[in-house]
Design brief:
The chain has 88 residues and is an all-alpha fold. The protein is 81% helix and 0% strand. It has four helices and no strands. The chain starts with a helix and ends in a 6-residue tail after the last helix.
Length: 88
Amino acid sequence: SPDARKRMILMREQLADHELHVAKYYLNQGADLAAANRAGYLVNQYPQTPAAYEALKIMHKTYQSLGMNKESQEAQAILQANFPNGLQ
């Protein structure tokens, strides 16, 4: 039913938002690797959610600060390919 599909999408977005919240918590605590890992999990598990945009930004930022330039560039490339004008 259409209603059940909408509820499933909403629940999936809520799970992604929770993962994003945890990634931001790690980022604020200075645990860059933990933030990058949590954001990467979000992108892998919930790629079609609005939270994936923020997760990719976190991945780019944290990988850059950790000196992981290849991973940072990959996150940036994915971000630009999927969200060329930012989140709309």
